[in-house]
UniProtKB/TrEMBL annotation:
<keyword id="KW-0324">Glycolysis</keyword>
<comment type="similarity">
    <text>Belongs to the triosephosphate isomerase family.</text>
</comment>
<dbReference type="GO" id="GO:0046166">
    <property type="term" value="P:glyceraldehyde-3-phosphate biosynthetic process"/>
</dbReference>
<dbReference type="InterPro" id="IPR020861">
    <property type="entry name" value="Triosephosphate_isomerase_AS"/>
</dbReference>
<dbReference type="GO" id="GO:0006094">
    <property type="term" value="P:gluconeogenesis"/>
</dbReference>
<feature type="active site" description="Proton acceptor">
    <location>
        <position position="198"/>
    </location>
</feature>
<dbReference type="GO" id="GO:0019563">
    <property type="term" value="P:glycerol catabolic process"/>
</dbReference>
<protein>
    <recommendedName>
        <fullName>Triosephosphate isomerase</fullName>
        <ecNumber>5.3.1.1</ecNumber>
    </recommendedName>
</protein>
<dbReference type="InterPro" id="IPR022896">
    <property type="entry name" value="TrioseP_Isoase_bac/euk"/>
</dbReference>
<feature type="binding site">
    <location>
        <begin position="44"/>
        <end position="46"/>
    </location>
    <ligand>
        <name>substrate</name>
    </ligand>
</feature>
<feature type="binding site">
    <location>
        <position position="204"/>
    </location>
    <ligand>
        <name>substrate</name>
    </ligand>
</feature>
<keyword id="KW-0413">Isomerase</keyword>
<comment type="subunit">
    <text>Homodimer.</text>
</comment>
<dbReference type="GO" id="GO:0006096">
    <property type="term" value="P:glycolytic process"/>
</dbReference>
<feature type="binding site">
    <location>
        <position position="244"/>
    </location>
    <ligand>
        <name>substrate</name>
    </ligand>
</feature>
<feature type="active site" description="Electrophile">
    <location>
        <position position="128"/>
    </location>
</feature>
<dbReference type="InterPro" id="IPR000652">
    <property type="entry name" value="Triosephosphate_isomerase"/>
</dbReference>
């Protein structure tokens, strides 16, 4: 029984149980109920943006009063509260880019999950390859942060991805599998977990894996989630692709199986570019 999801897992805010017939791409059936994963366009501003960027965010928010997909912007921590105020009462939510595993304490320069919630965040990106590289974050660090984020009521967007060397050595799936086992906590559900596949070599480079390569990894991630958490939870977790997503390539990426949206860096900084990606996701 341990792996059986609660009804609330199936009918949470991300997964709408529908009686209408939807395409197989959009839905999955569990215990006789069709579950739809609500698509998600997430923008990671990284270490970019001051108060001057807030009008850009407001302009994005006014363009999407009623988006049919979730839209999330993760600005730097210094802007989080003001960004939350800027998108208040719109369809857009904001998130953090990292958090400490502890609730509070002597950790100079760090921000806790509770502090992100206090600033208005609904989600937090964890284990981004830039944090794994710049700050030496290991899978167990990411897992501890994700537990803390989930306990605080945040969605944890956990990033996984291989280097070019690992891909060329045909180790991609082993690397992704290891990162998933080590970084994703046992308490994960379709509500509190999003997994982002971001090949390191595709981030900010303009290089994108082939659609088959993206599909292979996303199908692998889905199968691993189903094996570990059971089909109900495994099928309700959203999987994002990240790495050089632009308005021009978004539609074809969103057509790949088990791609439920994108985690976007550079193209999320300009409302016009991010709008092109949101529009493609709404049509997918
Ligand atoms: P780019 O979209 O700039 O390649 O960045 C991807 C990314 O790292 C998002 O987290």
């Amino acid at each position: 029984m341990r792996n059986l999801p609660l009804w609330s897992d199936l009918c949470n805010r991300n997964c709408q149980a529908r009686l209408v017939v939807l395409s197989d791409e959009q839905t999955t059936t569990y215990l006789g109920v069709r579950v739809m994963r609500r698509k998600l366009a997430a923008g990671n501003w990284k270490m970019n943006g001051t108060a001057a960027a807030l009008p850009e965010l407001q302009s994005l928010a006014t363009s999407y009063p009623d988006a049919s997909v979730d839209v999330l912007i993760c600005p730097p921590a210094t802007l989080l509260h003001r960004a939350a105020e800027a998108v208040k009462d719109t369809g857009i939510t904001v998130g953090g880019q990292d958090c400490h595993a502890a609730e509070s304490g002597a950790h100079t320069g760090d921000v806790s999950a509770l502090m992100l919630v206090d600033a208005g965040a609904s989600a937090v990106i964890l284990g981004h390859s830039e944090r794994r590289e710049d700050h030496g974050e290991q899978n167990e660090d990411v897992c501890a942060k994700a537990r803390s984020a989930m306990d605080a009521g945040l969605k944890a967007i956990i990033c996984v991805g291989e280097s070019l060397e690992q891909r060329e050595a045909a180790n991609t799936l082993d690397i992704i599998g290891g990162q998933m086992s080590g970084s994703i906590p046992d308490q994960s559900t379709g509500e509190n977990l999003v997994v982002a596949y971001e090949p390191i070599w595709a981030i900010g480079t303009g290089k994108v894996p082939t659609l088959d390569e993206i599909g292979e990894v996303h199908d692998f991630i889905r199968a691993r989630l189903e094996r570990r958490f059971g089909e109900g939870v495994g099928r309700s977790v959203r999987l994002l692709y990240g790495g050089s997503v632009k308005p021009g390539n978004a539609a074809e990426i969103f057509a790949v199986s088990n791609v439920d949206g994108a985690l976007v860096g550079g193209a999320s900084l300009k409302a016009k570019d991010f709008s092109g990606i949101i529009d493609a996701l709404q049509k997918a």
